[in-house]
Amino acid sequence: METIATKDLTLGYGEDIIIDDLNMAIPKGEITVFIGANGCGKSTLLRSMARLLKPKEGGVVLNGENIAKIPTKEVAKQLSILPQSPISPEGLSVVDLVKQGRNPYKGMFNKWSTEDEDAVYEALQSTNMLELKDRAVDSLSGGQRQRAWIAMILAQKTDTILLDEPTTYLDMTHQIEVLDLLFELNEKYQNTIVMVLHDLNLACRYAHHIVAIKDKKVHVQGKPEEIVSCNMVQDVFQMKCDVTYDPMFGTPMCIPHGRGRCLIKEAVAESQMKAAQAQ
């Protein structure tokens, strides 16, 4: 079953084609991660799925309807997007940011309702932001700021959530904090979550479904344990690697080849030298 899909989708900027004649379905209620080399079209594809970029050809289907034909407010009740590095007005409080998630439900004469209040409270509670609700968003740490934006999306009450590189500029601790939160939200509410991530190992750890994009198409897609291999990494990223298994999670773990400082090579060289000296 699918929530959102592309049909013969072609995207580009000017004369440059970024995505060409793409047909793809996103599994409902799962976490899907787009991976691929820089410039392959991951973010462009995500933006088109949120109706932020008009297709050159084809289209996007949301819950069985052409998204281009759905009224804007109706789209916003079904689908939400968190772009890269969103910026809030200076001094805006967390709770006021989260309240903006209720805008799709507001009309000219609609007053703030108990339902709106409950949605905001639940979103703040789910993201552990209740104690910080009166803080200015721009005063928060990177991880806290991302949680505030995710709370706004949760208040929007959409079944489908799109996130463009939600861990960008975050340190390791905050990356895990944000991805853990999204994973927990998916388990609790069964939202369909689609993310762009650069870290292949984190994609393998958190995704139910991975879509690898190359040459304007879907190169391969499926469960991480089924598709992530040395050959796939070489094909998609032009990088040699070893693929083993994450000892904590049992998911694929990519170990890139490179020059760096290799303790194994140093140990082998030392052993060979000692053996030669012994002779």
Automatic annotation (TrEMBL):
The gene is yusV. This is Siderophore transport system ATP-binding protein YusV. One of its GO terms (cellular component) is plasma membrane. GO terms for biological process: iron ion transport. Its main location: membrane. It comes from the Bacteria. PANTHER family: IRON(3+)-HYDROXAMATE IMPORT ATP-BINDING PROTEIN FHUC. SMART domains: AAA. Residues 4-240 form the ABC transporter domain. Transmembrane segments: none annotated.
